[in-house]
Amino acid sequence: MLKRNLAELSVADGKLYRDAMARYAGHVQLVTTAHAGARRGVAVTAACSVSDSPPTVLVCLNHNNEKNQIFFESGVFALNSLAAHHQPLSHAFSGLENLSMEERFAQGNWETLVTGAPALVDAIATYDCRIVKLVPHATHTIMIGEVAALRLGGHEPALVYMDRSYRTL
Length: 169
What we know:
The chain is α+β, with helices and mostly antiparallel strands. Helix content is 15%, strand content 45%.
């Protein structure tokens, strides 16, 4: 018989939830935007496809970080899917190194596609999006973006994050 560990989750127990979510493997992506002469980028795993007709993706961002307001004001974002060799870039955009945005962006090669959001030149895929809906929930806002342009990169191993460490797939 399979023995199960059951823990009742209370609202106050965010640590248990975060420990469980650490077991959830996610493709590492950089979500980027530009607005009023400023750029911002954040490493995320909370992103996925919504629909292929029209092509739509979603990204979840912490709206309690006031620096993320630029995403909601710009109305655009690029979702850049990372390859295994992008691990240092992901780490730079995670915020753990306390780098300025200029220092973070200096570690990659960037251009723009249609919306003006920074697109990583050697990403596995870049989804250049216009925000069609913002859905605030708890600490995060779900940005739903309709894909205005798409660029496919090379077939390389994907960078994945699971159990609080990088992996490749």
